[in-house]
Write the structure tokens for this entry.
Amino acid sequence: MRTTTQRKTATRQRIIDAAGLLFREHGVDGTGVDAVMRLAGLTHGGFYLHFASKEALAAEVARSLLEQAATRWDGLSRLPDHQAALKRIVETYLNPAHAMSDAACPLTTLGPDVARRAESRDAMSGALRGMLDALARLVGRDQAAASLATMVGAVVLARLADDPTLAEAFLAAAAASVLATDVNQTGTACRPADDVLSE
């Protein structure tokens, strides 16, 4: 039998999961608490037992979604074959079906909403630096920010394009650019993302 704490944790996660789906599809401003709780199979009144506000929920959703990506990239970046690791990160991130779906990277689906919310930006900052650190292990610190910016920008442009051929061209060009980067095969430690962003 689950304890009260376990049930509360599970319920909180249901709310986060439901909000993640709705926020990425409709935006934070376009999604009400009622809709989130309905999708989670819960009543509106229970929301405030878990979150102080919708803004607090938005921050937690942003953090949770980006941390999942950062964790995947961290694991891949520690593989011995850095070229293969980079290829897996890039091809998964820029896969047309994934990039155009509601499950695409939260930097591309929630970016504008997060940019307007200091609490959400703060919540995502650790995971964002984790993604940069993972790329830095593979391509070196100087190229990590450029690689991430290239991939995120390509997905944003692909999602904006009204022509599937043009959308795929953006994604393919970004993939070719990032994969052409010299890979760090020496095992030399790279300075963390805080150093990359501070220069």
User: Anything to note?
Assistant: Residues 186-192 have pLDDT under 50 and may be disordered. The two ends are 53 Å apart (CA to CA).
